[in-house]
């Protein structure tokens, strides 16, 4: 592969991936296709917009003609699909756009990839497609049944099924990655971890849903990106690869860790109404990608979280910028009764 189309490359993980590709694969051309929704931001690509191997296309994956034109024009031979509506809470308040982008958008990409002979299609999926685990259940493997619980995870599961169907029916070379919760630079602060950092730095309360005992498996975004690159280059066609950090934490543990790192006390914690249908626990079994592709995370949770807090403190202007719109008002109203 020489010319890679990265969709959603101005969002959190996509931007980190584009930065990695341009830094570590100097022989590749990266075409970054992003609709720049509230979650996409060209500042996330600061220092890389002018890179000669990077072309940015302001495009929507719901627009099949534009995808076709972009693939032809840039002789695309590989696609990595990050573009998605990604926030569970938004999928509860408005599921329609999740189906349009995550399902129909992925279908458009698959149709173009098939018709135009793209060599490899990588779908960036999520552990949420497996549903929720009880405390004593084994971590998700690639064999775990798909049982999504939110409109977001249902849309991602639908897209995974389409990718599988295009491989099975049309022989499209495709791979799927399913990752656990990411954290790191450039994450939009509607997600729990940057939301906490953003609120703590301003002495604002942290809305903790329900009893705060829900468990997530945290992975540093750089390690997710390195796993995606490994699967893109060496994964077996038709296969699914789970990616996780083996760092299970309750939400309340995470919040207390961040309060400690930022030198604030627990009076900022505010328990609020739970998310409807809230999944209790996710956990990923990494064995397949570790044993077959030799991938492993490069940092521990303690190292990754310290780097992340440091990044947000050094980039407070980024936080100010991305929270300057209606988003902050929405959260204050919804969760802090302001
Ligand atoms: P994000 O919300 O930060 O970024 C999404 C990006 O997609 C944005 O740049 C946005 O502008 C773009 N986009 C949205 N709709 C689009 C459309 N119709 N056409 C083109 N671009 C569009 O999301 P993220 O957290 O970076 O997640 C990226 C992918 O990784 C998603 O597919 C998500 O399901 C998956 N994932 C995320 C996590 C996580 O912890 N964040 C974990 C596992 C998997
Ligand atoms: O597991 C992978 C998934 O992780 C990705 O597929 C999603 O795109 C990504 O958004 C993330 O989903 P979560 O729902 O786990 O992430 P979120 O940051 O929204 O919430 C993390 C946990 O914190 C979850 O149990 C809900 C809780 N939470 C979240 C918010 C925003 C709170 O308690 N308070 C909050 O204000």
Relevant terms:
338 residues, alpha/beta, Rossmann fold, UDP-galactose 4-epimerase, domain 1, seven-stranded parallel β-sheet, three-stranded mixed β-sheet, 12 helices, binds nicotinamide-adenine-dinucleotide, binds 2'deoxy-thymidine-5'-diphospho-alpha-D-glucose
Brief write-up:
The chain has 338 residues and is an alpha/beta fold.
Report strand order across the widest sheet.
Answer: 3-2-1-4-5-6-10
Indicate the structural class.
alpha/beta
What is the percentage of strand-forming residues?
Answer: 15-25%
The gyration radius over C-alpha positions equals 19 Å
Order of helices and strands: EHEEHEHHEHEEHEEHEEHEHHHH
| Average pLDDT taken over every residue | 96
Q: How many distinct beta strands?
A: 12
Low-confidence stretches at least 5 residues in length (pLDDT < 50)? Answer: none
Helical residue percent band:
40-55%
Q: Span from first to last CA?
A: 52 Å
Biggest sheet layout: 7 strands, parallel
Q: CATH class of the largest domain, please?
A: Alpha Beta
Report the total helices: 12
Number of domains: 2
Overall geometric form: globular
Enter the CATH topology name of the largest domain.
Answer: Rossmann fold
Q: CATH architecture of the largest domain, please?
A: 3-Layer(aba) Sandwich
Give a verbal description of the structure.
With 338 residues, the protein is an alpha/beta fold. The protein has twelve helices and twelve strands. It folds into two domains: 3-182 and 220-243, NAD(P)-binding Rossmann-like Domain (Rossmann fold); 185-216 and 247-277 and 299-336, UDP-galactose 4-epimerase, domain 1 (Alpha-Beta Complex). It is 42% helix and 17% strand. It has a seven-stranded parallel sheet, sandwiched between helices. A three-stranded mixed sheet has the order 7-9-11. It has a two-stranded parallel sheet with strand order 8-12. α4 runs parallel beside α5 (151-170). The longest helix has 20 residues, at 96-115. The chain starts with a strand and ends with a helix.
């Amino acid at each position: 592969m020489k010319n890679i189309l990265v969709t959603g490359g101005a969002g959190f993980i996509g931007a980190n991936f584009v930065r990695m590709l341009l830094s570590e694969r100097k022989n590749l051309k990266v075409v970054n296709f992003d609709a720049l929704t509230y979650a996409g931001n060209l500042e996330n690509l600061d220092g890389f917009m002018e890179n000669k191997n990077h072309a940015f296309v302001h495009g929507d994956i719901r627009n099949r003609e534009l995808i076709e034109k972009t693939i032809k024009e840039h002789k695309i031979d590989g696609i990595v699909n990050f573009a998605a509506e990604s926030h569970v809470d938004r999928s509860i308040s408005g599921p329609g756009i999740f189906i349009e982008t995550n399902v129909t958008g992925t279908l458009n990409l698959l149709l173009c990839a098939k018709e135009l002979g793209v060599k490899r299609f990588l779908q960036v999926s999520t552990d949420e497609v497996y549903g929720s685990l009880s405390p004593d259940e084994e971590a998700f493997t690639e064999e775990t049944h798909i049982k999504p619980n939110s409109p977001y995870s249902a849309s991602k599961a639908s897209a995974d099924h389409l990718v599988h169907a295009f491989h099975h029916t049309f022989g499209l070379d495709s791979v799927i990655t399913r990752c656990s919760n990411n954290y790191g630079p450039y994450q939009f602060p509607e997600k729990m971890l940057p939301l906490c950092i953003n609120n703590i730095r301003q002495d604002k309360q942290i809305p903790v849903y329900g009893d705060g005992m829900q468990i997530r498996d945290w992975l540093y975004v750089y390690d997710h990106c390195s796993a995606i690159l490994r699967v893109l280059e060496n994964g077996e066609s038709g296969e699914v690869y789970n990616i996780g950090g083996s760092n299970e934490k309750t939400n309340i543990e995470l919040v207390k860790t961040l309060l400690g790192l930022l030198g604030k006390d627990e009076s900022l914690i505010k328990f609020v109404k739970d998310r409807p249908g809230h999944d209790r626990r996710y956990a990923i079994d990494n064995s397949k990608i570790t044993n077959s592709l030799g991938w492993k995370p490069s940092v521990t949770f303690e190292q990754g979280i310290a780097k992340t807090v440091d990044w947000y403190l050094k980039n407070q202007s980024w936080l100010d910028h991305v929270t300057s719109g209606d988003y902050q008002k929405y959260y204050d109203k919804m969760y802090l009764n302001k």
